[in-house]
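Sorry, explain these C-alpha cells?

***
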Amino acid sequence: MDKLDLAVYDTAHKAPQGLASLAAKMNVGQQVLTNKVNYNNDQNKLSLREAVSMMSVTEDVSILREMAWMFDFRLVPITSKPEESLLSAIVNASADHGKVHQTIESAFIDRRVSKREMHQISREVNDAIDALNTLLATIEKMHLEGAP
C-alpha cells in the first residue's frame, strides 16, 4: 500500500455521512465503491473521474494532494480575492516581497538557518505568494470589467 492508496481509502471511509451515502451520491453501488477503494485490491480501482467525484462530494482533496506530491508539486488552494485598488495590490505585493528578502538576509547572517528561521522564511514566502495571487486576481477582475 502506498500513500495514494491510503488517501483514496481514507477519503471514502471518512466521508461525512459514511461510505454508503458517498456511494449513493457518486451513483455507484456501495460494494463496488468499497472494492474500488480497497488498497488490497489491485484489479478494480477508481477511475480518474470517480476520484474527482469523490473529492467533490467529500470536499476532501487528499487524493489530489498526494498526487501532487508524487510529482514534486505542492498543492496550495487559491483563496485570493481582488483588492479594490490596483495600486494597493501592487504595494502589498512589493512589501511582502521585501519582507521575504529581509527574512532570508537575516536568517543567513550566521550562515545557518535554524528551524525557527526556516519557518519564518516559509511564512513570508507564502505571504508573498498570496499577495501576488491577490494582485493577479485584481488585474483579472479589471480585465473582465473592461477597465484600462
